[in-house]
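Check my protein:
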Amino acid sequence: MATNGTAPDSTTTAPVDLPRQQDRSRRTEDDGAPDSRRLAWFLILTGAAGLLASWVITLDKFLLLEDPSFKPACSLNPVVSCGSVMRSEQAQAFGFPNPMLGLVAYGVVVCVGAGLLAGARYRGWFWLGLNAGMLFGTGFCTWLMIQSLYEINALCLWCCLTWAATLLMFWAVTARNVTTNAAPGPPRQFFTEFGWAPPALHLGIIGMLILTRWWEFWTS
């Protein structure tokens, strides 16, 4: 009932939608990203491929150290000769066999993919750090590829697998970061519609270099 001639206040305060506000506050950089499960499986598969190749190369390297006359199974001819690559100085660029670095790096990638598959959400700085690490890996693989083609003059099939795995995971994480973070419109639009193009072009260039480097051998 009104008192002092004042009408009762019929205005009620709407209840605060706390759950909705909390849900908005929990949004992470993953919102709007490509299918996280697809990316998770892609990282697991490419990481596992690199891990397998690194493991095989490491085992063969140890066997080669025990017996200098050991011939790896992937030494098929003068061009496809894993043994020639393993004996080179470039095969231990940091003072230890390169594949030992791959055992750690590819293992991390598999764990990241497994975490995504289990529902983990990583911070933006983590994704940028992962992208930077993969950029270093791609640069290192590019250097190894150039050394293999033009200095060592031989190919290692398992090494080729690590090159492919590294550049594929690099472009996948790059596409994820560009389409998820506050990147300018054109790059985001490009990676959203043509995310497959950079890795396809990258692989195509490597394949063309390998083909032309030993063209006479392949066609003989």
Summary: The chain has a mean pLDDT of 87. The domain at 33-214 is CATH 1.20.1440.130 (de novo design (two linked rop proteins)). DSSP finds nine helices and no strands in the chain. The chain has one domain: 33-214.
